[in-house]
Design brief:
303 residues, 39% helix, 6-stranded mixed β-sheet, globular, 9 helices, alpha/beta
């Protein structure tokens, strides 16, 4: 049992790991604070440091991948309030609709990269360019019908990609309480955009399933609750921690190990205790919190 504690410097390694595990398993900030008898500020500081390290570790480690098939998608969320309720003076604060762009390796289930921002061509370019910098060799990419993908994928990869688009047709939106249920898919069309993509590999099922895991594993993404993110910084930290847990810690039923091990990025299945030990080691080296440290610039695609 945890004793009553008020400051993050009083948390043991095991206690930190337990708190972070609760967050990635879908508990809200308030529920976690009540369960472990710590303040929300303490948890937010821990989340900020964990998210900072998770993002830095991913940026440095998940590179030079031999990915042959990748699926790209975006998942919606919001910070502070939905877009239609954002006041003009709050637009610059990052409030409103937020989209998480994500790319997943179809074979290893590894989340190759992600980006939090708007659902526009500018963010699409940054996202796809980052994906290209992390993989080597030719691969097949499948996306949904978002127009921004077409010009960006061809612009970044040129002739070195097999690209297909999957367009799904859904039944009419239902009224009343049923409008919150997922719409029924009534048709799927697949189109080759460039290269020679294989029709049997043109799918977005894996990345959509990962998006479901994301909604189930983060209270911030659960619809119709008050657990949504209040600040964009905390939103990004939570997402980074989620993807670290998804890639390095959580064993997947289909591959019987973690995506990082399957992809050759890691040589073992991590635990949350391993992650916290690494975080505490980095804090000791820096002599302070990780959020006070500015990471080196990530690698960019030369062409």
């Amino acid at each position: 049992m945890l004793t009553t504690i008020t400051g993050m410097n009083k948390l043991t390694t095991a206690e930190r790991a337990q708190i972070l595990t609760a967050l990635v398993e879908g508990m809200s900030m308030s529920a976690t604070a009540r369960l472990f008898k710590v303040s929300k500020i303490t948890i937010l500081r821990l989340l900020a440091d964990a998210g900072t390290l998770a993002a830095q570790f991913h940026d440095l480690t998940v590179r030079d991948l031999a990915t042959k098939r990748a699926q790209l998608d975006e998942i919606w969320s919001f910070v502070h309030s939905k877009e239609k309720h954002v006041r003009d003076e709050n637009c610059a604060k990052g409030y409103g609709d937020n989209w998480t762009w994500v790319a997943i390796d179809s074979d290893s289930k590894l989340v190759v990269n992600w980006l939090v921002g708007g659902r526009d061509a500018g963010h699409a370019w940054v996202f796809v360019n980052d994906l290209a910098a992390r993989v080597k060799g030719r691969m097949q990419i499948t996306t949904d019908g978002l127009p921004a993908y077409r010009q960006v994928v061809e612009g970044v990869f040129g002739d070195n990609v097999d690209y297909a688009v999957v367009v799904k047709e859904y039944a009419a939106i239902r009224e009343g309480y049923a409008r919150y249920s997922p719409p029924r898919c009534i048709g799927v069309e697949k189109h080759a955009v460039c290269g020679a993509p294989l029709e049997r590999d043109a799918s977005t099922s894996f990345v959509e399933r990962q998006n479901l895991t994301m909604r189930m594993s983060m209270r911030r993404f659960t619809r119709l609750t008050n657990g949504f993110s209040k600040k964009p910084e905390n939103h990004k930290h939570a997402i980074a921690l989620h993807y670290f847990h998804y890639n390095f810690i959580r064993k997947h039923q289909t591959i019987k190990t973690t995506p990082a091990v399957m992809a050759g990025v890691a040589d073992k299945v991590w635990t949350m205790d391993d992650f916290v030990v690494m975080m505490e080691r980095e804090e000791a080296l820096l002599g302070g919190r990780l959020t006070d440290y500015k990471p080196a610039a990530s690698k960019k695609r030369k062409d």
